[in-house]
Amino acid sequence: MNKRGLSTIVATVLIVLLSLVAIALVWSFISPAIKESGTSVALQQKCFEVEVRPTNCNATTGVVNVQLTRGNVADIDKVTAIIEQSDGSTKTAEGTVTQQLSTVSITVVIDAGKSGKTAQAAARVKDESGKTALCSPSVEKVACT
């Protein structure tokens, strides 16, 4: 009888150990996804707070000069000028706005035979770990002259 009681305890311990191993394996697959989604949410929240808008757009042959104005949010890494060309395609160029409430001029080279129609702005934000995300373009568009 003593052997039966001991084998029951061994079987119970083995089941508990197998359960712990299974939990560890599942957690190793789920944990990175949870951490990554948390970082993504933090970056998207910063995008909601960002204010970048185009203020001027001057088009010349093959080049469009855009002025972008930045709001007072401190977490902007870079700003992007988005130019809609005459055929509907887009061209982009990045610049850096170092101070809050300041303006930067960005030059965008456009395709030959096309002209710049409108300009939009987008911000690139950075989190504490150094990851960046490009925010959605501004709703405001400026016509290029």
Helical proportion, percent range = 25-40%
Following the backbone from N to C, one meets helices and strands in this order, namely HEEEEEEEE
Low-confidence stretches: none
Our measurement of the CA-to-CA distance between the termini, rounded to an integer number of angstroms, reads: 96 Å
- Strand content is 35-45%
CATH superfamily: Immunoglobulins
**Count of distinct strands:** 8
Structure description:
The protein is an alpha+beta fold. It has a single domain, classed as Immunoglobulin-like. The protein has one helix at 2-49; strands spanning 52-60, 63-70, 76-85, 90-95, 103-109, 116-126, 132-134, 142-143. Strands 3, 4, 6, 7 and 8 form a 5-stranded antiparallel sheet that branches. It has a 3-stranded antiparallel sheet with strand order 1-2-5, with no helix packed on it. A hairpin with a 4-residue loop joins strand 3 (76-85) and strand 4 (90-95). It starts with a helix and ends with a strand. 20% of the residues are buried.
